[in-house]
Amino acid sequence: MDNRVYIEIAPGDVNYVNRIMEGYEYLGILTTIDPRRATCCINATADTRKEVVEILTHLDTEVKILADREEAEAGLR
């Protein structure tokens, strides 16, 4: 199973989401895939992936969970 979580957020929220992950003792490490669309990958572990998704879905900002890397990279080519 892929432990990465792909998301799309508002470009201005990238730092906010990154700080949330840091604040939770680095449950996942955020990497930006497409800065224009603010699609990101959060590298989690098998033990933390479910918790990462739970946190993301309860933030005060809109977070769209993407199906896979292909969806996150759409438009880059």
UniProtKB/TrEMBL annotation:
Top-rank taxon of the source lineage equals Bacteria
Name this protein carries in UniProt:
DUF4911 domain-containing protein
Source organism per UniProt: Dialister invisus
